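Board notes, transcribed. Complex of a protein with zinc ion.
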Amino acid sequence: MANKLELTMLGTGNAMVTKCYNTCFTIRNGNDYFLTDAGGGNGILSQLEKAGIEIGSLRGMFVTHGHTDHILGAIWIIRIIAMSACQNKLKSPFTIYCHDEATEMLTTFCRMTLKKKHLDTLGRQIILQTVSDGDKAECCGIGFTFFDIHSTKKKQFGFRAELPNGKSLACLGDEPFNESCTKYVAGCEWMMHEAFCLHADTDKFRPYEKHHSTALDAAKTAQSLNIGNLIIYHTEDFDLPNRKTKYTEEATSVFSGNIFVPDDLETIQL
Ligand SMILES: [Zn+2]
């Protein structure tokens, strides 16, 4: 039987949400998990616990960029992995992939906040792997290509993942798709794209002022890029109980593929 290949959304909200966790997720291949972003703090540990994901099964992670709602939880991941390493419970080194700016931020945070014995695991059991635009790496049996999403706000990377089942998944971080990333994203079976709010609520949430987009925009992009399955995330949490229905309805009007608007802790079979 083939390995379980699934995506678990640990959080699905934007930076300032209070009714769900900040956007972050794991990709599972069998018993190994790859984490992307970690939300804004210690809540990442409870989200992992609620999802039933053991710290010991995390093999690596990717940090998209240095904004609070994505990078600060990574300190808690480093801390708990460092604790495992110190107790000789870590089976193999844990690798954190991110661009140079995020590497520098993580190194500084760790130096300023961690105990010496935990800090000493950096570079040994915990590897900070700086990646540049177009760099490739393999983790959890998944082939990643990391790329610059060309943010106008803060340097940010996304990735294209080649899954062991032959399908591909593109993660665009928390900003709208940029044309220059077409070669990484076009034709992917899966695309993860942010939507700050519904197009119908543009006046209320003003997504474009924050360089975010709407469910309608994400769906138009997915249609133009010939995507099979669109995952919409990094949203407002004003009407969470109805988010799935409303966002799906809006996206369906312009996208003919499958639409997923996951709630926190929801798992999607890839
Ligand atoms: Zn964000």
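The chain has a mean pLDDT of 96. The chain has eight helices and 14 strands.
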